[in-house]
# Entry
Amino acid sequence: MVRDSIRILQAQGHKATRPRKLVLEVLEETEKPLSPYDIQGILRARGKYLNHVTIYRILDLLCSLNLAHKVLSSGGFVKCSLDDIEGCHRFMVCQHCGAIQEFADKGLCQEENEFARNLGFHTEYHLSEFSGLCSRCYRKWLH
Amino acid sequence: MVRDSIRILQAQGHKATRPRKLVLEVLEETEKPLSPYDIQGILRARGKYLNHVTIYRILDLLCSLNLAHKVLSSGGFVKCSLDDIEGCHRFMVCQHCGAIQEFADKGLCQEENEFARNLGFHTEYHLSEFSGLCSRCYRKWLH
DNA sequence: GGCTAAATGCAACACTATTGCAATTAGCTA
DNA sequence: TAGCTAATTGCAATAGTGTTGCATTTAGCC
# Structure
């Protein structure tokens, strides 16, 4: 909820401004990654104007507080839907509808870490984006 | 080797032009991801000019032939170092020196697929970028 | 050497992202 | 509730990234 994010924002000494609330609302409503200009467009359609620089800065802040993530394959931003991500961000991106699902799994992380270590690489952070079909689109695909 | 890539290029009906050889040479030399403008800069420093549009087009071609990959976390391009990637691209990115190591593991892929399936997601393609320290930088880190 | 389709270079443009500074505002205090 | 101040936003300017159409050049063929 937007309200929760605002609380976290304030707890860290940041102000609960109108632009921040608007960006959080938009992110909250959609499960697809949005670019700064996407967000500006959505708000403009509602008669609420935000400068793009402001949106960039707000998204930076939200990411730094782990309230949002940048999805690298599309460059867009999504709200963070997990409380604790344990140094491991995972997204499943639906190729058909673009929807994002964030998830985490400790066991999988450990396995991957071990695999990397065998190759001489010391991982401390995972970024995984799986591309495929979400359950809804998969059902449609099967007719 | 550049020579191998050129052969693959020609086998698919593409010409072995001077610009393509130059881009392949640069990609071959470095294990760090390079943006189109990085490549242009490196070549310019050697007195060889390529238009940035040309470089974009060459990188598109190389990626479509699986001779190069786009590394999403940095947006740069690296040469492909694996013959068969089985629908699964993996990179380990060193946080310290930026070096990239590409790798693949069928078992890990299967495990990830299964995990995704349990969440109702049907994956056909993985993109994983692990961030950490490569063996050389890790040794330095330990003093 | 000449031919032709493919590839490159160029110019123009659109989109994305960043910086410095002036104006505004949230949240504090009285 | 009004006033204060630092934080935040908006604006203008600019830099960087990526794309398109078209004229020119070139690789690979005869």
Observations:
- Strands of chain B lie at 68-70, 77-79, 88-94, 100-103, 122-133.
- Chain B has a mean pLDDT of 88.
- Residues 13-15, 17-20, 49-51, 53-54, 57-58 of chain B lie near DNA strand C (CB under 10 Å from a C1').
